[in-house]
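Can't paste images in this forum, so I'm doing it all in text. The chain is below; anyone willing to post the predicted structure tokens underneath?
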Amino acid sequence: MFKRFTQTRPFATLGIVIAAWLVLPVALKTFLRAGFFEFTAPLTVAASHLRDLQEYWALRLHRNRELIEAGRDLARVNGFYEYTVQQAEIGTLEKALGLPALPGFRFEAARVAQRDLSGWWQRLVIRKGRNYGIPLGAPVIFTGGIVGRVSEVYATTAVVELVSSPNFRLAALIDGDTRPLSYQGGINRPFAPARGAIEFVPLDITAAASAPRRLVSSGLGGVFPAGLTVGQVTMVEPSADGLFKTGEVALDPRLSELTEVTVLVPLGGK
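Text version of the structure:
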């Protein structure tokens, strides 16, 4: 009898804890969750710094000549790539807004500290928070376009809800078209290519995997500036009501390996 009690005791304890958690008030749950996140944030940031340090010492093991040659080649590629991206973004934004690129924001670069393995395509944690003036709801981007938006802010970290998350919605446009449509992240499996979906697509819009259409932010809603890349529309088909089309959006594969992102912080505390 004692042996049976000993074997079932952990399950009984777990059941009591779950039952207690279910009956707790929502306000107390929110407080406990925020407190736990703040408590574990230093460990998350420390682990991220340790990974950077490990990469640094791994590079120190290479010969100086190899590093110089690799750095020179990488600088050339990065220089050409950044120039090409900047020119494309400037042209798109000037055409869409008639203004210099993103005049209402300051750019805050942030290192990715952690990725939620249980929801790989849902969120990630960055190493900056209230200490750098990161606001709730701020857009997060990278050279390939939209990463997501800040969904939680803590003292030294912030959580970013990814553009691939089912909870992420955005008013978007097909590049070259002025009619807004609705984008939503999809239910994506970990490590598989991330995809989203679009609704209310005009009937005359066509797209296919062999001839994709670029999906960009519309600027409606006041969160994301217009002209930022969301993904590539690879398929559209008539919706059930026949009034519009629905479609699939392939997201940038680099979203799965981001190590640094840029937060657009509104100027003037907007």
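The CA atoms of residues 9 and 15 lie 10 Å apart. The radius of gyration is 22 Å.
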